[in-house]
Amino acid sequence: MTTVGLDTNVLIRYLTQDDPPQSHRATSEIERAADRGAALFVTNVVLCELVWVLEDAYGYSRHRIHKVLDSILRSVQLEFENKEAAWLAFGDYSDGKADFSDYLVGRVGAQAGCAETLTFDKALRDSHLFRVL
């Protein structure tokens, strides 16, 4: 089976349908891949950028981003760089106050054997993954 990587901008156009020409091309490519049985690969960086763009450029609420992430992570057509860490970070993000990217950093670090991740981000004070300096 063929795997095709997705950049953040293609995923954003597909999800938001905000730019008709680009959204049409993104949707066509994603649907064509689905018809061929090809998987679409999403890196950790793309997941983080996706959340940042939806928050900052589109003004999505944390609740709405939660729904988007849940849908993406449940998609059978998408493959992820580290799905386990992404799901764990999703849970942390759902329950916590910090950014999704911070939680993903902490989860990947923990999987790599880090006892903790050092940070200055006070929003991570309640996370067992981090030690706030």
What does this structure look like?
The chain is of the alpha/beta class and 133 residues long. The chain folds into 2 domains: 3-81, no CATH class; 97-133, no CATH class. 58% of the residues lie in helices and 12% in strands. It is built from 6 helices and 5 strands; from the N terminus they run E-H-H-E-H-H-E-H-H-E-E. It has helices spanning 8-16, 20-36, 44-56, 62-74, 83-95, 100-111, and strands spanning 3-5, 39-42, 78-80, 117-119, 130-132. The strands form 2 sheets. It has a 3-stranded parallel sheet with strand order 1-2-3. A two-stranded parallel ribbon has the order 4-5. The model has no long low-confidence stretch (mean pLDDT 95).
Write the layout of secondary structure elements.
Elements: E1 3-5, H1 8-16, H2 20-36, E2 39-42, H3 44-56, H4 62-74, E3 78-80, H5 83-95, H6 100-111, E4 117-119, E5 130-132
Parallel strand pairs: 1-2, 2-3, 4-5
